[in-house]
Amino acid sequence: MEEPKVDPQPKHTIDLPGRITVFPSQDRAMDQVLENLLAQCPAEYILVAEVSGQVFSVKGKRDLANPVVLASLVAGDMAASEEIARVTGQYQRFQFSLREGIASNTFIVAAGDHLILFVQVAKDVPLGWARMLLIEASHRLEEIMSSAPDEVEDLELNLHQEDLENWADNALSLLWKK
Fold it and tell me: Which residue from 172, 91, 97 is spatially nearest to 131, judged by alpha carbons?
């Protein structure tokens, strides 16, 4: 009797147009990172888009903007920012943009090769705090997307608030020593 063949890939994947396939374990892990960011930053609005401008996830205030339009604009903005960085010799793997607004600040961060993280925070959230959390979240998202679906459960998904608080304390201490 022949053994039944087992399909190595789950049947319920999310295929984003363009470049990536997201497995359920990756989707759950990314959702956890975004929920942590929403709470710890705190963020008012989070949008994750694929680099081609396709919406992947939206968290927070849903009435901010049309996510489809916003994702397209964010992808165009990131592509332009990356090219400006290349032309000026300032390119780095995780590009980061900040726009200060009247009531809130907006951050756009590359999260690896395939995703872009757009986050809006209230004006009273310290920029350095938001920046540190966003950089950590973008690295977590990239780590999730570059891991095999069955390895995602072994990743550390929480944003390390204690480490960031220690980092901030150390940075302030160093400031006073100079």
Answer: 97
Average pLDDT (46-68) is 92
Domain ranges (residues) in the chain: 14-177
Give the gyration radius of the chain's Cα atoms. Answer: 18
Local structure of 38: helix, strand or coil: helix
Residues in the chain: 178
CB neighbours of residue 82 within 10 Å? 17
Per-residue confidence band for 4, with pLDDT thresholds at 50, 70 and 90: very low
How many CB atoms are located within 10 Å of the residue 167 CB? Answer: 13
Q: Three-class SS of residue 25?
A: helix
Does residue 4 have a cis peptide bond before it, meaning omega lies within 30 degrees of 0?
A: no
The reported pTM is 0.78
CATH classification of 14-177, choosing from 3.30.460.20, 3.60.15.10, 3.40.50.720, 3.30.450.30? 3.30.450.30
Whether omega for the bond prior to residue 42 falls within 30 degrees of 0, making it cis, is yes
Quick one: which H or E segment has residue 77? helix 67-87
